[in-house]
Amino acid sequence: MQTTNHVLMIRPVKFVSNPQTATSNAFQKSDLVDDVAQSLAQREFDDYVHALRNAGVKVVVVDDTPRPHTPDSIFPNNWVSFHSDGRVFLYPMEAPNRRMERRVAVLAEIEKQFAIREIVDLGRFEMEDKYLEGTGSMVLDHDHKIAYVCHSSRSHPDAMRAFEERTGFQALWFSATDRHGKAIYHTNVMMCVGKSLAIVCMDSIPDSEERQAVRDKLHETGKQIIEITHSQMESFAGNMLELRSDQGRPVFAMSRSAWHSLDLEQQHRIASYAERVFAPVETIERLGGGSARCMIAEIFLPRLGMAANNCATTSFPEAAHR
């Protein structure tokens, strides 16, 4: 199942630009004082949740906590993923202050509506300085068990192999850079893979063989490709996510700046494919270096009452208590 109708979002309580992630995230800026940043980010968050719900997407909202201070908690897809077999994966994070985002209270809130069979904790790789930041590092084709992964300090092969061994996914690795030749920190800022549509900045893959391998794999798995430019990627046009409404219709979530960066032909192809949800998240994009897709953790878990194995007494690992 490539798309879901249920998502998790974390409402910010003290959003600021995170100095611990700035070195590897070229999209991130730091030009607003804390109180202004928090006020704007919270308004943008609430507007985005409202737009998703209006499109028929079920949103589980969990409030962040003031302590410990986790400035990037608004991007939960990096530390957790929820799978259709009832497993939850916790991921190793590069920035020490992002590791504190893994909170048992968030998982307990999810467990009120969904059945968790097992929690797989990959946080141990942090002890070896090896990271894999969830569906930021990996753009997953669930239907074909493919993980598209670009090389960066936040995506380590050993952690990726551990994910592959537990899930059956196979990684397709490649290098991707911005227009200045700097490695792109997360794969999901340069590509999005839906059920039958993919948005990809092919220009960001400098090696022609790797670029062709990505193109071939997308075609082989039945994806139509919309290619975007470096400039459009910088407006987060690659950071989209396909969801589905409660009526089963495709919904494409994206930022307002991403949509406005597209040309008319690109806009027409997306509009003819899915309903669009525009997130007015300019402050979050500028200070956080992430956009509409980064703010969503998809929930594929079985619903309570629909699962054969309802594990209401799941034992949470140590990493989720930090």
Number of strands: 15
Helical segment count = 10
Spans of at least 5 consecutive residues with low confidence: 307-313
CATH homologous superfamily, by name? L-arginine/glycine Amidinotransferase, Chain A
Strands in their spatial order, largest beta sheet: 2-1-15
Shape: globular
Largest sheet: 3 strands, mixed
Radius of gyration: 18 Å
Strand content: 15-25%
Just give the CATH class: Alpha Beta
The third-level CATH topology is L-arginine/glycine Amidinotransferase, Chain A
Measured as a percent range, the helix fraction is 25-40%
Q: State the end-to-end distance.
A: 31 Å
The helix-strand sequence is: EHEEEHHEHEEHEEEHEHEEHHEHE
Q: Quick check: average pLDDT?
A: 92
CATH architecture: 5-stranded Propeller
The structural domain count equals: 1
Helix/strand/pairing category? alpha/beta
Keywords:
about 325 residues; L-arginine/glycine Amidinotransferase, Chain A; three-stranded mixed beta sheet
Give a brief outline of the structure:
One of its GO terms (molecular function) is transferase activity. Helix content is 27%, strand content 20%.
Description:
The chain is an alpha/beta fold. The chain has a single domain (6-321), classed as L-arginine/glycine Amidinotransferase, Chain A (5-stranded Propeller), CATH 3.75.10.10. It is built from ten helices and 15 strands. Helix 6 (208-220) links the parallel strand 10 (197-200) and strand 11. Residues 307-313 have low confidence and may be disordered.
Write the layout of secondary structure elements.
Blueprint: E1 6-11, H1 34-54, E2 58-63, E3 80-82, E4 87-90, H2 96-99, H3 104-110, E5 118-121, H4 134-137, E6 138-141, E7 146-150, H5 157-167, E8 170-174, E9 191-193, E10 197-200, H6 208-220, E11 224-227, H7 230-234, E12 241-244, E13 250-255, H8 256-261, H9 264-271, E14 275-279, H10 282-288, E15 297-298
Helix pairs in contact: 1-10
